[in-house]
């Protein structure tokens, strides 16, 4: 069975993607910071009958990242790495003039540095896979200028560029930066708590990610809405 490592997998997009992959027979290594919530998510995912290893921890911890990759190795390898864990930098989001520099550092550490660190740790297993792939969960804030989204958007723009370079350096892999579009997640609620507009459920964009895995287009940046539109 193929094996995926998914960070930020206890809720939102990470959990929705984990459930979709488990339904397809994937074995999974799941990460999140809150052990209780992660344990509940892992229990739900394991109901599909696949093997699930859940490791609570912070992706900025090198030992935790090594543990995630070691868990994948015990399951047989790593065919997919999904860097989904994210930090906003400020909750709720604020204009750049008031953005705490420590918050910006945290966003960069989680969204960029830790993501690259996990890629580096997992590369030997991904290269050994016949269909190794990396998904970097991006944002439209990486490409568009929105008030208050500067710190978070800058971190995702940096992640996009790392993904683009990795795709050039690792032609044997597929490396996709994916903008999932608007979703009703805890992250978005923390970013903009006063926004009462309805947002689609994370599960609604999972078919876009599955399309990438099925069709394996060239490494690059993709937007989930466009991928979903192409399926109609």
TrEMBL record:
Keywords from the UniProt entry: Oxidoreductase
Organism: Streptomyces coacervatus
PROSITE patterns, per the entry: ADH_SHORT
Protein name: SDR family oxidoreductase
InterPro entries cross-referenced by the UniProt entry: NAD(P)-bd_dom_sf, Sc_DH/Rdtase_CS, SDR_fam
Highest taxon, organism lineage: Bacteria
Gene3D superfamilies on file: NAD(P)-binding Rossmann-like Domain
Family label: Belongs to the short-chain dehydrogenases/reductases (SDR) family.
């Amino acid at each position: 069975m193929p094996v995926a490592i998914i960070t930020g997998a206890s809720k939102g997009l990470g959990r929705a993607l984990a459930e979709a992959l488990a339904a397809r027979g994937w074995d999974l290594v799941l990460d999140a910071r809150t052990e209780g919530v992660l344990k509940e998510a892992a229990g739900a995912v394991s109901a599909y009958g696949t093997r699930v290893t859940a490791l609570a921890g912070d992706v900025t911890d090198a030992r935790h990242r090594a543990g995630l990759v070691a868990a994948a190795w015990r399951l047989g390898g790593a065919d997919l790495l999904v860097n989904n864990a994210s930090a906003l930098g400020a909750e709720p989001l604020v204009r750049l003039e008031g953005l705490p520099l420590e918050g910006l550092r945290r966003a960069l550490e989680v969204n960029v540095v830790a993501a690259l660190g996990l890629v580096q740790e997992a590369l030997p297993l991904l290269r050994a896979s016949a269909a190794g792939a990396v998904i970097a969960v991006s944002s439209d804030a990486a490409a568009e200028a929105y008030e208050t989204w500067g710190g978070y958007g800058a971190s995702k723009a940096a992640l996009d560029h790392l993904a683009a370079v990795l795709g050039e350096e690792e032609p044997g892999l597929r490396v996709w930066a994916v903008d999932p579009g608007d979703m009703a997640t805890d992250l978005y609620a923390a970013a903009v708590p006063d926004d009462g507009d309805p947002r689609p459920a994370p599960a609604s964009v999972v078919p876009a990610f599955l399309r990438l895995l099925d069709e394996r287009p060239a490494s690059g940046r993709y937007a989930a809405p466009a991928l979903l539109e192409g399926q109609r």
